[in-house]
Design a protein that fits this description.
Strand content: 15-25%
Number of domains: 3
Structural class: alpha+beta
Strand order of the largest sheet: 1-11-6-7
Number of strands: 16
Oligomer: single chain
Helix content: 25-40%
Shape: flat
Length: 423
């Protein structure tokens, strides 16, 4: 993963795609119960596929990607200016767009390819151009065992120097050099969804079953029946009033949607496609019948989504970046934005951190996007008669003199029994 090094030389071309088979190029026929040419255009026509790819790519591309360094074994964010690879990873493309392109390639093809176009003074890549995964071919040199990359240029294939290749793989089988394509393996389900939508379109347009039945009390020969039907169709086309002869009855055929099994098929497809992308079906509008998972709040759902879905992709990208940064520097996604809770809970957490001396007030203010307090602000804050106790609970400020309250009422019976009470 990351930059792959190898030696140049004559190559013997052989297939490296693992089993179960992945189509050698996008648009090739894929085996399954339903044969369908699953290319990005056709697969993204399925709302569940679009939602899964959109959800994952959007979420990952909006997470901050920051540079860290190991100092004495501690992980600390670097204070230096972010490198160009993080601020402008490719010409005319922002960081979020670049990460989004990478994620779309991974989700649709199982592989993301980039080509190093510029390097910094240290020799490490400063800009990487993302490539169309369908225009990249991966082979193995039998003599050297090196991985060989070729880029399609028109009708020919041009070999790319291995040190210029940036390759990120998704789910990978042992011994394989390319990742598995979720779309190729979900071809049967996606094909069924596409076919069911085409059937539904024909069904509601009248192609599935006849729209109506014309019946009469008299016997009609084929010519008379055709004449009556043609007159009926002409009246429908011209939007004219329908006039039927004596004894002729027009009965429209209406079928309930549930009887066509269209809605049930769509719900089943959404759940199955969501499983291929490891996304809870309810996050893309799928049915959740029979599910016992409940979330107390939005934060718990985000934690579940992060742990069991996003972490895999985040770690894949972070590992791919590791060899293209000078050690001990590395990049890491900040996931704190996803773990935000409601304002009340967040305030309690901040107080606990302050009381436990885990963070300083300045660091807490930075999380809210505020600069350190000025001298005047500190004086004003000291006027607030609240401090932070050991458990993060508000307490009186040290040295604060509380005003005496009204005297407590004395019960009448105590006054009568007191010999010193005034008469």
């Amino acid at each position: 993963m990351g930059i792959l090094f190898g030696q140049a030389g004559p190559v013997e071309r052989r297939n490296v795609f693992p089993e179960p088979p992945i189509p050698p190029f996008l648009g090739a026929d894929v085996g399954g119960h339903v044969s369908v040419k699953t290319n990005p255009d056709s697969s993204l026509q399925v709302p569940a596929v679009w939602s899964c790819v959109n959800l994952l790519a959007n979420t990952v591309s909006t997470l901050p990607l920051e540079l860290y360094s190991l100092a004495g074994g501690d992980e600390v964010p670097t204070k230096q200016r972010p490198p160009k690879l993080l601020t402008s990873p490719s010409p005319r493309v922002t960081q979020s767009e670049w990460i989004h392109q990478l994620m779309v390639s991974l989700l649709l093809r199982g592989n993301a390819y980039g080509r190093v176009i510029t390097r910094g003074y240290t020799g490490f890549p400063s800009q990487i151009l993302m490539l169309n995964p369908d225009a990249v071919k991966v082979e193995i040199d039998r003599d050297t065992g090196a991985t060989v990359y070729s880029l399609r240029q028109g009708a020919t294939w041009q070999r790319i120097p291995t040190e210029q290749v940036f390759h990120v793989r998704g789910m990978t089988l042992p011994g394989a050099v390319v990742g598995l394509s979720p779309i190729a393996h979900a071809a049967a389900v996606i094909g069924l969804d596409l076919h069911s939508r085409r059937f539904a379109e024909d069904f509601f347009n009248g192609g599935g079953i006849p729209k109506a039945v014309l019946s009469g009390q008299q016997q009609l020969n084929p010519e008379q029946a055709r004449t009556l039907k043609d007159r009926l169709m002409a009246a429908f086309r011209d939007r004219e009033p329908l006039v039927l002869g004596a004894g002729v009855t027009y009965t429209p055929i209406q079928v309930k949607p549930e009887e066509s099994q269209f809605l049930l098929t769509q719900q089943a497809d959404v759940s199955q496609i969501a499983r291929y992308f490891n996304i809870p079906a309810e996050m893309i509008g799928g049915a959740t019948s029979g599910s016992n998972i409940t979330y107390a709040n939005l934060g718990e759902r985000n934690i579940h989504f992060l742990q069991f879905c996003l972490n895999f992709w985040l770690k894949r990208i972070e590992d791919a970046f590791f060899p293209i940064f000078p050690q001990p520097q590395y990049v890491k996604f900040r996931v704190e934005e996803m773990l935000r809770v409601d304002p009340h809970t967040r305030a309690q957490v901040d107080l606990l951190k302050l009381a436990g001396k885990i963070v300083t007030p300045t660091e807490v203010r930075q999380e809210y996007g505020k600069p350190p307090m000025t001298h005047d602000q500190k004086i004003e804050a000291d006027m607030v008669p609240l401090g932070v106790g050991p458990l993060g609970r508000p307490t009186a400020m040290p040295g604060l003199k509380l005003l005496p309250g009204p005297p407590a009422p004395v019960p009448a019976n105590d006054q009568q029994g007191d010999p010193n009470a005034a008469a």
